[in-house]
Every structure is written in C-alpha cells, then in structure tokens.
Amino acid sequence: MESGYQRIVLVDELASFVDYLRLRSHIYAAGTLIVVINIPPAGIKSFWFRRLAGADNIRRFTWHIFSFCQRYTAEDQAIENVEKVYSWLLENERIPLKPLESLYGDPDVCMAFKKQLVLWLADYFRVVNAAQSLQSLGRPIQLSISSQWQQMDQYMRLAGVKTTLPEKVNDSFGVSFSGQLEKIGKKFLFLAGLLGTVPWILSRIRKINFHKSAPKSMQLAIRLYNNDWGLRGQATHEADWLLDGERFHPGNTLFVAENQLNKDYENEISHRKYTLSRQYYKAAFREVSVDFILRILILQNFKRLGALFLQSLSTPINLMKVVVHAWMDYFMWQNFICHYFPMAYFACHDIQYRHIFRNILLGTIGCQSWYFDHSNSKIQMYENNGKLSGREALRDYMKFDGEIHWGRQLIQLAQKHHNRSRFFEAYGPIWYREIKKTALMDKIILDRWGSNPAGIILAVFTTTNSLQAINGEKTHRDFLQAFVNMLNDPHYPDLRILLKHKNLNYEEYMGLEGTDIAEVYENLKKHPRAIVLNPRFSSNAIVSYAHLVVSMAFASPTVEALVAGKRAFYYDASNAYRNSFFEKFPRIVAHNGLELKDTMNYWLSLPERDFMAYLEKYIFPEYGGNLDVSPMQRIRQSLNVSK
C-alpha cells in the first residue's frame, strides 16, 4: 500500500453524477486511497470528473499488475453462471420473455437477454476479483459500488451462486437517495419508450405506400457501420470488398447502414451507385406501407404491448434496454423485409445482442446470416495452458447461420461458447493476396529515406494500448524500446523500421501507468531510419515494403504476412506468454531482446525453399488449408446461395 494510507476504497465506476457523489464522500476521509476500476471516456470529459481532477488520493485501477489468468478469470466465471442467474430471473418473472417469444415466433429471442446478462456478470466478477486480488496483497479493502452491482450480488445469492464481496462502504443518505432517483428515472424512460413506440414511429414516416408491392430481391446484403473499413479509395480494406462484378455487383447487392454514417461515407456510396438501406431508428421508418402500419405496427402493439409493459415493471434496469431494443428492432426489421428480400446477410465484427433480433427475422424469409471475424487476437491465443478456457463474455450467445474465421483454433474457440451458429469455416486472412506497394507509401518512403533505401526494412506492428488492453503500457514501452535499441546498435547500421500502432488515440494513453513510454516513442519517431505511420494506413501496403514483419504479441499482421508468404514473427516483449498458442510453431515467438535479434537473423537468413516448407507444414493447414483459391473467392462462394 502507498505510504500514508490506512485503507483503500475500491470504486467500481466513475461515469455519472451519482458516481461522483459516491466518490466525493471519500475524498476527504483521512488516510483513504480511492481506486477507481472504470472511468469511461464520457466520465473523463465530464464536469464532475474535472472537479475531482485535483485530488491526489485517486488512482485508476489497472489489471496489468496481475497475471494474465487473474485478469480474464471473470470471463469464465460469468459464462459458467449465466444460465443459473437467468433461470432464477425467468422463474421469478424478472424477464418478459413470453410476449417477445410470441412476437418473434422463436424461443432463441431469450439469447439476447442471456448475452446482456453474461456481460453484466463479467463486469460484476471483475469488481469481485479486483477486490480479492488486492486483498491477497495484504491490503484492507472496502467497496463503494453502484446499485447495479448490489443488485447483481443479490441475484447471484438468490440463484445459489456463492461470492465473497469485501465489506461495502455505507453510502450517505444523499448518495443512496440520488442513486434510487437515477434508477427510477431510467426505468421510467425505458417504460415510456415502450408506450411511445407507435406515435414515435408514425412521427418518423415521410412516405406511405398505399399499394403493397413485392420486396426487391437482392443476392447479398452487407452490414455497414460508421467505424468499419469505409470506402476511402484504398486498394484493400474497403467495405465493398465482396463485390467482384460477377457473383456480386451493385445491381444485386444491398448495403445496410446499422448506424448513421458520416456524410463523406454516404456520399461515396452514392458516387459508386450502391443501394443503401438505413437501418437505424431515426431513418428506418421514412418509407412504410399501409400494410406495415395496420398489420404489423398497430396490430402487434394491440396484441403484445400490454403484457410486455406489465411484465417489464419488474425487469432489472440493465436488462430493460434489451426489452426496448427487442420491441423497436422487431418493427424496424419487419419494415426492412417489406422492402428487401436478400438471400444472404453478411456482417463483420457484429457481436452485440441486437444481431439476434435481426437474424431471427431474416431467417423467416430464408435469408442466411453470416458473421465474419476478421481477427486473430483472442484470449486463448495468449494463454493456451488449460488454466483458462479462452471464452469471452462478449462472444457468448452468437446466432448466425454461418461463421467465418481465420483459423481452425479460432473455430474451436467459438464452439466453446453458448452459440447457435450452424456451421463454421476457416479461410485465413482475406487480404493476403492484396499485399502490394502503393503510390502513397512510395511517396512517404521517398520523402523520408530517398529512392531505393539500402538495408533491411522491418514492418513493426503493436496491439491496442489502453488500461483495459491485453498488453499493458510497460509491454508497449519495452516493445518500442527494443527497436530503438536496434536502430542504435552498430551491428545494424542500415536497419530501417516502418511502425504502425493499433489505435488512433495511442498517444493519449501514454504515461497512465507510470512509464516513460512517451519519451521512448518520441525517440523512435524522430530517428532518421524510422517512419511512424497513421493507424488507418493499410497494413498490407506496409508489409509489402518489408523484408521481415515483427508484431507485438499477438497482433494480426504477423499471421497475415506469413499466409502471404512473407517472413514474420512475434515479439513478446514482457516475456508473459510462454504458453501461447503460437508456441506450437517453431521460431515464431521471441521472448526477450536476445531472442528478438536471434529470431530476426534466423528468418532473414533462412533459404526460401526451407521457408516455404515451413509454411506448408505449420501455417497453411491452420489458416485456411487450400490456398489455391483466395479467401475472398471462397467467402463469395459460401455466400452465393439461392432460394
């Protein structure tokens, strides 16, 4: 414990005014250190957080001081207990399942509640585990937790699940009263949302079709969202990559925006003459038919709303938004079906519970739903010794017809969850054949290094840097420092580095865990033989200029490069992942500075014939098997369904 503090108050979150009141009541308590587990971006920017910024006894909690297994135990605990807690809630009429099952005509609608519940449980267990981990270090802990965690603690006990929360701090009357007032206010807004659905939808209508017409048949619908790959004119990594002009083209492909796209994105969609459907509440009901208003909107409200409203009165706040989304999404996707008839619906990184409502309704018209997981970074890839299952609460309760993953191990991991997807395919990274030089990258290198720069070029990639990220600040600092050291090593006078870090706000998180990472990063940026690139820059283009790719454990570009026939490996700068999935592949992971240099020299000197033999034995069978046909083409073949 930091000197001068006699006790620690562990606060679960600082996100609202009530959280501010709870925190404020402890700031001036003598000898008290306050540790806050979660401060979301909205909380950091809030007025009440700025009022606390000057306090010197507030610290942010970070899991990076604990072992990997300690950090991710909550995921397994949540998944193991979610069915017990759900059953208790259902038996005690806390979930309005019957009217929603009747509305959707599918018992799988319950998966949305379970998916939200497992996330709630995972957050709850993180609070419990954080307190217990600090207690194990000999630190006296008291908890100051919001009502949602107290409510979950009660549900856990009633469901027969034993937990051991430390002593809770007694909140003042003002804090308790404010918390109850906030809870009542949220419940009122949710219930008002249910009652106001019909008038709100009617207020959004701009055009009514009086004659019922057949929906437009489309071969494929592609989900878009504002932070996807977009349509920025890059050679690769664009949201329309499935269009090949043969199977799929603008005439038979529908783009579906599931949140409001920025103006430039919509303009580019229009410029390319793509058909766009806006499936978010503000825009989804602009055009409807009389049949939709009478048969679906009015009739279903008359038949279901009363029972749904009454049964929602006892629903926990954390599950009420599922009720409202289930109700609103039903009308939104029913209106979509009135206009379009896609044969397949393709979604990337779509892991929130609302996909369940959409896919149930699309299934009623025979539309196949497909999920594409364009990632290689999963918990089990880091720790594969059996102590953790590798399951993640966020990926539990998925419901698609088919799932497409990079590798066989990732499919096995997906199948460990409570998922209802029917079939799984491993096709490897989709853009490995698109690794090629670009005019933009040519200019960047020419401006910095001149034409035909001599020496070895390393393409270096990090993972995300944040307080919640898998790799902590110290790991990022040590990773970057290793390459600063190599640039200054007289044994590598011509070594050049192209660095791409993962997140746009990479620099914002520097220094939050007390290291000199900002100084190290600056030393790398200003080195004449290093180029630091924007995170939005295409990884493929960067790899195309490199003799060797080195990624932080376990960023995706290393696998993408290997599948493309480029030499690559991982650098585990903190020596934390001796039991990773990648240990099964010889010479793929370096765990310290000496191994980094040795592994780099090994791959650079390996004869091409031996390198190709290595890929054929270890990499290709795991990531896609038969690579004669590109992953893009194989995905298009899977989606080329007919009714």
Detailed description of the structure:
The longest helix is centred in the first third of the chain and has 27 residues, at 110-136. The protein has 24 helices and 21 strands. 45% of the residues lie in helices and 14% in strands. Among the domains are: 7-60; 63-170, no CATH class; 435-626, 3-Layer(aba) Sandwich (Rossmann fold), CATH 3.40.50. Strand 19 (548-552), helix 21 and strand 20 form a beta-alpha-beta unit. The model has no long low-confidence stretch (mean pLDDT 87). With 643 residues, it is of the alpha/beta class. Strands 9-8-7-12-13-14-15 form a seven-stranded parallel β-sheet. The radius of gyration is 27 Å and the shape is globular.
**Using DSSP, what is the number of strands?**
21
Number of helices: 24
β-sheet strand percentage: 5-15%
Largest sheet: 7 strands, parallel
